[in-house]
Amino acid sequence: MVKILAYPHQQRLRLEIHGAVQGVGFRPFIYRLATDLALTGWVINDTQGVFIEVEGTSPHLTRFLERLPTEKPPQSIIHSLETTWLEWCGFDKFEIRHSDSHGPKTVLVLPDIATCADCLAEIFDPRNRRYHYPFTNCTNCGPRFTIIEALPYDRPNSSMRHFVMCAACQTEYENPLDRRFHAQPNACPTCGPQLKVEGCSNALVSSLNALRDGKIVAVKGLGGFHLMVDATNTEAVARLRDRKPRRDKPLAIMARDLAQARTLCQISPQAETMLTSAQSPILLLPRQPNAHLADNVAPRNANIGLMLPYTPLHHLLLRGVNFPIVATSGNLTDEPICIDEQEAPQRLGHVADLFLVHNRPIVRHGDDSVAWLVMDKPQLLRRARGYAPLPILFPRPLPTILAVGAHLKNSVALSVGQHIFISQHIGDLETAEAMTAFERVIADFLQLYESTPIAIAHDMHPDYLSTRWAKEQRINPESPSLIPVQHHHAHLAACLADNGIEGTALGVTWDGTGYGTDGTIWGGEFLLGDAADFKRVAHLRPFRLPGGDIAIKEPRRVALALLWELYGESALAQEDLAPVRAFRPAERRLLAQMLNKGFNSPITSSVGRLFDGVAALIGLPQQVSFEGQAAMDLEFIADRTISDAYAITIMQGDTLLLDWQPLLESILADLRQKVEPAIISARFHNALVEAIVAVAQAVGEPRVALTGGCFQNRRLVERAAQRLNQVGHEVLLHHQVPPNDGGISLGQVVVAAAQLKKI
Ligand code: ZN
Ligand code: ZN
Ligand code: FE
Questions:
Q1: Which of 39, 136, 298, 395 has the maximum number of C-beta atoms within 10 A of its C-beta?
Q2: Alpha carbon of 351 to ligand 2 centroid (Å)
Q3: Distance from the CA of 110 to the center of ligand 2, in angstroms?
Q4: pTM to 2 decimal places
Q5: Per-residue model confidence as pLDDT tens digits over 247-296
């Protein structure tokens, strides 16, 4: 039967769009597009997405469909777009209808977005009413995740509800053709948040003066406090390190603009794109040889962690001084970032000389994200501002699972349908403050997405505080079930999910520490498997860690333990070796007893620790202040021109065993031949790469995933990827979540989902 329409050439089109489509100027964009094409109808937001009905001639409707995805606002992400053709019903105009806040909350919460070019121009235009206003924003930029209290994203559901818009702001807010139409944090000097420094009339000027004087300024920013200090002033940087305390760990730098950044770092076109992106992460970049920076900013480090200003306040600060500044998280070592100006003086009072605060409440914390380029592609090392809480899209819907992550670099994850939401970086669960932040983030996620998990996935380590927390939730039979996930299996599953792969891979999962299924500490593992299951097909030859966790900060202990494996008691007499000399004779005897009896000396197959041991052997620092420091030192001294490698024997048993004995013997021989540490380091790295290739070839799995904290080493990850490609393997690297333990929560969700399917 032929359908007869009132006007055969007029039609109505209904669209349902899901993704990151709120708080990015999506509705005004639709309004402009529709009116441009002389279409009538409406657009509305609800808790799941954007709904549109447009009417007009079919050629115009077709144009509308073509232009929508190509001209959409820059910060929006369309996950799905469904269309239905309907009968014409005669709308007389196009209108933006009021949001509907009922129904399940599946619309994506947007991350905070760096200041856009339009807003930046206004801030530095003396004729503009927002001249020098530090809280300028629009629908294309500004705070989102850190001010949202509930969904849908509207001003009354954000911490901007405390500020009533003035007439000028209200007019912008209501005009569909204005850049600030429904920009929820819209504000100006008349009606919006203000800066404050206690006892000073001009907060910005006082802060700039303090920075010029080499003072430490605590600055309340977007997702928390920064501690800022002149990055060219060695004495000032030393004071910051002393007070925080932060002995050796590199400090992040904020540069005024790209031009200043180029004087500090080498910036490739890809790096420029990342630095100037809406995410605006801290990017690890090769240091310029003549960079004008205090040498204690990133001691012995080949890289500088650099970011550009990402809020109007940062732009004002950086343009007010003519030097780059250190901008490190406003916390004490191991604690989460401070977000509250009431709490800041208590927590940071002995660190900062001045507090630059403002009265826009921060709803949840958000550290700066850290990224780098591996094989010319971006990889996150810390996933927070700009990225969280955007989800990883899974190929199919998952049951609702909460994953509580690992112990260090903790993040949590929650699956809702096809989305796996990963929290912002929480940190090391070592302090009461960190545990409070961990619990707050979990409660926040469950509330934000109105979810009740059916299962909680946790690490197998019985002593992790996250594991204990998970077990405490098991209060009655109706509580979510608990699913323990092996640490390195989670790394492998995270890497697969990060790449959208549901199949099998050989996971080269190398890190510092992870609880193994046999109760020993794993960390040099080759796991063959998928999300559902794995087989440990190869691993590093185990050794003992005298003193357990103490050995993480004392590479000399690892070196001694390695020597002990080869030479027993006589290892302690080899006084020509730096790690032996680093212990007094009495200490050596104590260590010998521990190693002899295995007392307080857990067994490990950790590659991270092998790095530490080798670093100590060749005379790098015998004691360090953070995990990974020795490995970084070892990486940065390596001679790039050396291509030969030490031998690592691969022994066939139940599993393949990577025996480091020949490697260690060669290192000792080279040391006694006075071979340069730079050459020894290069040969060591090359040996590990060749071991990876040999195992991959022996196992025969075409797809190899490189994951775990050890792959934050450029020399290791890039050489391994290149060599694996050369011999015909497909290599999976991380992109959306970090290769370190920050990615564990994603892996835990995916493994737990696979386990639930099996039951
Ligand atoms: Zn803007
Ligand atoms: Zn205003
Ligand atoms: Fe790990």
A1: 136
A2: 35
A3: 23
A4: 0.94
A5: 999 999 999 999 999 999 999 999 999 999 999 999 999 999 999 999 99
